Amino acid sequence: MMAEAILSPDRRRSLAAAIFCTSVVGTTMGLISPLLSLILDRRGVDGQMIGLSAAAQSLAVLAVSPVAPLLISRFGMRRAAGGCILIILAMLVLLRLFENLGAWFALRFILGGAVTSLFICTQTWVNRMAPPQARGRIVGAFGFLWSAGYAMGPLTIRLAGTEGWRPFLIALSLVAVAGLPLLFAAAPEGEVHRGGLAGIGGILSRGGAAMAAILFLGLMDSTAISFLPIFGLRNGLDQADAVTMLFAQELGILAIQLPVGWAVDRMDSRRLLLVLSLLAFAVCLLLPLLVDVAFGLWPSLFLLSVATGGIWTVSLALMGQIFEGGHLASAMALRSLIYGIGSIAGPPIAGLALALHTRSGLPWMMAAVCALFLLLQIVLHSAREPRGAGG
After folding, report:
1. Which of these, 203, 209, 264, lies nearest to 374 by C-alpha position?
2. pLDDT tens per residue, range 4-36
3. Integer CA distances (angstroms), 383 to 20, 319, 386, in order
4. Per-residue exposure over 221-233, b if at least 16 CB sit within 10 Å of its own CB, e if not
5. What is the pLDDT of residues 122-179, one digit of tens each?
6. What does the DSSP 8-state code read for residue 51?
7. Which residue among 26, 115, 208, 334 is least crowded, i.e. fewest CB within 10 A of its CB?
């Protein structure tokens, strides 16, 4: 009887539609981002311009996140998600038709805005429909399928190549299929709070631990993606092994999603954040030593991504625990905005760290970020203790 109360057939279909939509779009983004970079490189565009083109897509996170709750409030979750999918489809077609680099900046900005809005919508959708007793497991499944989908993108390029319409047609087909279940799913009901500066202050005061976690992840993720291979090269790895460092990280993210989702339903979420942030700090601190140890590097990278991937899942579930009413969409939008800020700030700081110390500057910088996050979690956790607040 309890199982049926937790997940009725209608709720199960609704959750499945939102999770399936996001995971398939994750596959598409994992395909499109490297595909566009490879196409530009084949055309002879220099690396700096390729990076700026990719940044246009990332900057859309900052621009669109504040207005996403307004769109969801105006059109409803299902119509907002459907509109985002139509925009993504249109941008994919236009990216194939137009070869002008300037046009690609605009198209990638719009594409990034649509993906960001869709992700905010579906994260809100899943957290609203997930019952409190099973939220961790459902969010863990959501994170697992998104990560798996994103990891499948580069493999799709390997099979489809980068020439002609084929990779774009695959992406178009995936996005179209992703949107179909939304037509038959019941979206969560209830008013969406429109936010504003006062709303942001309230969200930060209530959800400080989750927001600190997403800033930490923005810094760590962007740093790892941009600089881990460079760290490997400077410590004697060949190019193949240096790039494989990112694959080792992806394995850890995938491996932790379902177990940490199970743990969220049985443990205090803030204590779980403390444990995971302590693990990340310890691995980063030891990484300069482990990189020279046979078989020491790969397990350490795996454990680091277990920690960061677990923090992502715990923080997302914590958002649902704290913001179960109409403020959830605004909280998710602020979450995306803060992640974008961290993603933009991370690479310049990491670059400075590498300049200061060629071999060990990067892991020391990451350890410092982990230490600050761990300290902040301790302060926030202890501040809540007198009031007897739990997860």
Report:
1. 209
2. 445 677 778 888 888 888 777 777 777 777 787
3. 38, 18, 7
4. bbbbebbbbbbbe
5. 888 888 888 888 888 888 888 888 877 777 776 677 777 778 888 889 888 888 888 8
6. H
7. 208
* pLDDT tens per residue, range 300-349: 989 999 999 999 999 888 888 887 655 777 788 888 888 888 887 877 88
Q: Determine the 3-state secondary structure of 358 from DSSP.
A: coil
**Contact (Cβ atoms closer than 8 angstroms) between residue 379 and residue 371:** no
- Of the candidates 101, 342, 119, the one whose C-alpha atom is nearest the C-alpha of residue 225 is 342
C-alpha to C-alpha distance for 300 and 119, rounded to whole angstroms = 30
- In this structure, the number of other CB atoms found within 10 A of the CB of residue 312 comes to 25
What's the whole-model pTM score? 0.77
157 exposure class (CB count in 10 Å sphere: 0-12, 13-18, 19+): middle
SS3 9: helix
Q: Is the pLDDT of residue 197 over 70?
A: no
Domain ranges within the chain, ordered by starting residue: 7-184, 197-387
pLDDT value, residue 189:
61
Q: Is 204 exposed, middle or buried (0-12, 13-18, 19+ CB in 10 A)?
A: middle
Is the confidence at residue 278, as pLDDT, over 90? yes
Q: Which CATH superfamily is domain 7-184 in?
A: MFS general substrate transporter like domains (1.20.1250.20)
* DSSP letters spanning 89-109: HHHHHHHHH---HHHHHHHHH
Contact 272, 317 (CB under 8 A): no
Same topology for domains 7-184 and 197-387, yes or no?
A: yes
Q: Higher confidence at residue 107 or residue 390?
A: 107
Q: Per the structure block, which two tokens stand in for 15?
A: 């959750």
Q: How confident is the model at residue 388 (pLDDT cuts 50, 70, 90)?
A: very low
Fold of the domain spanning 197-387? Growth Hormone; Chain: A; (1.20.1250)
Residue type, 276: L
100: exposed, middle or buried (C-beta count within 10 Å: 0-12, 13-18, 19+)?
exposed
- For residue 334, give the nearest of 238, 231, 196 by alpha carbon: 196
